[in-house]
Specification:
Length: 119
Amino acid sequence: MASTAKPESWRTEVGVGDAVAVLHIPGALKRSRTFDIDVSLLVRVPEDNTDAWHALTLEIDGKRQWHRLIASNCPGQTDGLDYHCRLVLEAGPALRIRAVAGARGAVVQRLQIEAREDL
């Protein structure tokens, strides 16, 4: 018999100048769930991007999962960083995903976290 459950989808986004996005996924008492997590950082790079950089850190339940710092490219345009992971959320506990952007010279335009359940 095919499942009639609708997959969960959670998303948060912060805009210009904001450097922290937090996504809370509530626990489910009766089932475990698998989520595809995507984190995306978009920065505006100045025309004179000498020594400009941007960074992205991902924390899951307070533990650092991933970090990257790179030189900002594309003067006068945008650049970014993306991260993808898949995780299983066991029955019971909630999940807290925190993304932190850093930049020097470049300006944060958007920081987004999206979690989609894989049924």
